[in-house]
Design goal:
Shape: extended
Number of helices: 2
Number of strands: 0
Largest sheet: none
Order of helices and strands: HH
Amino acid sequence: MAKGKKSNDKGANAPKKENTQKGKSSNKSAGKGKK
């Protein structure tokens, strides 16, 4: 999941924005902990 997230952040601005809006806090926490 972390790998995909990184890839999305690198070349998926449109989809990434939606993902962040859906759960910015959750995504940030999960990414930080998962990393």
